[in-house]
Design brief:
Layout lengths: L24 H6 L2 H8 L5 E5 L15 H11 L2 H4 L3 E5 L18 H14 L3 E2 L1 H16 L4 E4 L11 E7 L1 H18 L19
Parallel strand pairs: 1-2, 2-3
Antiparallel strand pairs: 4-5
Helix pairs in contact: 3-5
């Protein structure tokens, strides 16, 4: 999703995507990825912080319990450790999981709630990507929502000769749709990046 942002901003904004596949807050710290961000931050930078997918699954090595997840996010937030940068918290994007009635089932309920609560406590801007992406997937429905994810039929890709059905990772279109939700959140929150959004037709999903 991060790579999709550059096309939505004017030339004064540089998007530096430091996301790494499969990382949780725990492994992002232990592998030195967070320290590399802190080392390069400048005053006025914005840091968009989204975790949860890999933190919340107990069978993964990246798993961290609820308190540990909360503590790591708190570590990421306070003016980004004296750098006078601007943290923004995001709940994790929804997975594509529908029940037999065609109703989307939330899979991040506990960890998304932690992000929301921490944002309120720390007075950090929050973009609720989980709720907004759930709304989008529900609108598209069980079949229509597949067009946002890595769904490949057998023989469609040489990398996946037997096909692929991935309900977690977005394809290019899905990444762009998630980016649009985040951009709408930026506008609604009136962040300093708002005047630099190049595509003014992004709908402000967060307006009340």
């Amino acid at each position: 999703m991060g790579n999709a942002f550059q096309r939505f901003f004017d030339s004064t904004v540089v998007v530096d995507n430091r996301a790494q596949n499969g990382r949780s807050t725990k492994t992002f710290i232990s592998e030195g990825l967070w320290s590399s961000i802190i080392g390069s931050l400048k005053e006025g930078d914005y840091v968009f912080i989204q975790f949860g997918h890999n933190d919340e699954v107990p069978t993964k090595k990246s798993y961290i319990n609820e308190q540990g997840f909360r503590d790591n996010l708190a570590r990421f937030c306070p003016r980004n450790q004296g750098k006078k940068a601007n943290p923004v918290l995001l709940t994790p994007a929804a997975r594509r999981k529908f029940d037999t009635t065609g109703t989307l089932v939330g899979t991040h309920e506990v960890y998304s709630a932690i992000v929301r609560k921490l944002a309120a406590e720390q007075k950090v801007p929050l973009i609720d990507l989980d709720r907004e992406s759930q709304a989008l997937l529900q609108k598209l429905g069980p079949e229509g929502s597949k067009k946002l994810f890595n769904y490949l039929t057998p023989g469609e890709s040489i990398n996946y000769p037997e096909g692929r059905a991935d309900d977690t990772h977005f394809n290019e279109l899905g990444a762009l749709k998630m980016a649009e939700i985040v951009l709408a959140g930026i506008r609604s929150l009136k962040l300093g990046l708002t005047p630099h959004i190049a595509h003014s037709n992004v709908k402000p999903l967060y307006e009340k």
